[in-house]
Amino acid sequence: MLVVLANDLPPAVRGRMKLWFVEPKPNVFVSGIKDSVAKKVVDYLYEHCPAESGLMIFRRIAETPGYEIRGLGDHNRQIIEISGLQLVIEKQIETL
């Protein structure tokens, strides 16, 4: 399974995504493609999307916790890893 969240996609990429993904909300794409194909799609997205696309990609993997998170260009969210678990921080709290 692959879930892609984006701020904005180039029209050509968006058109290709709509071939294999359902888009339940604008710029949210979900597909049950095989894991090997999902890796190729992620590589395609990284190759053809500029940083302004603001990608957040959730890909199923066979290892615990069962998913991998990758991001590109979204400055409002940060991916962190705690004890091997990837998490998304939406807003940093600044300490005084």
UniProtKB/TrEMBL annotation:
Matches recorded under Pfam families: Cas_Cas2CT1978
Alphabetized NCBIfam families for the sequence: cas_CT1978 (TIGR01873)
Protein name stated in the entry: Type I-E CRISPR-associated endoribonuclease Cas2
Origin: domain of life: Bacteria
